[in-house]
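TICKET #2291
ISSUE: user wants both folds in one file
ATTACHMENT 1:
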Amino acid sequence: MAHADNLLLQQLPNAARRHLIDQCEPFELVLSAELSVRGEPLSHAYFPLEGFISLVIDVDHYPALEVGMVGREAMLGSELVLGLAKTPWRALVQGAGNSWRIGAEALRAELASSPALLQVLQTSLLVRLHQQTLASACERFHEIGPRLARWLLMSQDRAQADSFHVTQEFMALMLGVRRVGVTVAAGEFQSSGFIAYHRGELTVLNRAALEEQACSCYAADKLLHTELTGHKH
């Protein structure tokens, strides 16, 4: 972890990046770990180098629903730019890996002394707000199959690998649907040779085909990121 491999950190001038990393500590992202609690202030911010984190919201008695995903293209805790940050979601590690972690107060001190860091994190927060708005519309209007294809592509992008661990129960939770719906859609993708799935290990075999199956929100999400940050991910 001697060199930052988080795309936000890479946007910083060298001196600002080195100074920020000096205030961070290595932190392992353990699968299924909960990094923040709904309604409580964030104690830390995280810059994933590998792996990825799902932002999950709970509403009344309904199953939890994923409303965002954070990988090496972003950070967890950009709300700290706004001051005291209480979030409406829980942050769950969906893909194991490594990250840099910094305390909330230490990050605020860095923001006060680094205009470059402030601008990068403000842009990151804006991107996520736009993406969460898009995700809400996707949840309302698009069918399970195209949404599953989009979610698999997003997960593969952040896993930086063709294979990653995920259960059908977790996919259903993230999409806010019953498991049977995910089972049918994933079975169709598998029989078509798009993916292979066995005992929680999913492998993307034909990414181009999945991109054809995905709803328009996948491309729109990537375009939003590029337009707002000037960087592809």
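ATTACHMENT 2:
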Amino acid sequence: MARQDKQLVFGRDLAEISPKLFLKLKLDLRLPLEAENINCDNFADTTIDEIKNLTVFQGRQKACIGDFFEITGEPSDKVMIEGDLRNVKRIGQNMTRGFLWVKGDTGPHLGAYMTGGVIYVDGSVGDYAGAHMKEGRIWITGDAGNFLGSAYPGETKGVNKGAIVVLGNAGSDSAIRMRRGVIVVKGDLGDFAGQAMLAGTVFCFGKLGDRAGAANKRGSIVALGGKPVFLPTYHYDCTYRPTILGVLFRRLRDWGLEVSEEAVNGYFERYTGDLNILSKGEILVLK
């Protein structure tokens, strides 16, 4: 088990992570701010003046990061951003490195297209967090919106590797067309999770919403908070004790998540589907 005197984030003690660059929102944003340039790649190996002049957009109006944020510290890939960021979109988009600490609620598309690094959000996030991740990790202490770790409309593949942890609840339509990786929701997970999953694993510790796994090809959905309402294209297969789940749960503990002994050593009912596709996907329900 993780030591109780530490706050672990993917196995790292949060107290030992010391940001060197600080951004603090200095305006009350009434219009959304497109801020994909707020990521660790752009803040290392540069100067404070260059950081202040990085481009953001508010509607069609081009502006600079320094127009909206007070920037202190020194250039680094260990960054803290603070404020009411609910109208700030695309923080951490395309990030490949570093540790981005977000203090406060933030807007949609956080960490979209990440290929590396860690984003830690001390708050809640909007829709499409972690969309199309190829690597990297996102840890959210609050709630997540809809389409968590999902593909954008028209795209054939979504998340491919990487990990997302949500300590609160998550909305509907999570993990759409997920290819690989892990999504963990400690609270409740909305309806239609895991649509058209190609592979990967989704853990729901709270209540799993209705009709999960529609058109699921080979993905795994693990329900630990009771039996959900299944689609008629899923059927009961067996009750067993999956060895691989014990391994995965111990890894989640190493990351800093609480996992009960009942889950680690318990038996699960296995339901296979979607019969309309390959019937090689599964929903595992803790018995």
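RESOLUTION: both attachments delivered.
EXTRA DETAIL ON ATTACHMENT 2: The CA atoms of residues 201 and 220 lie 5 Å apart.
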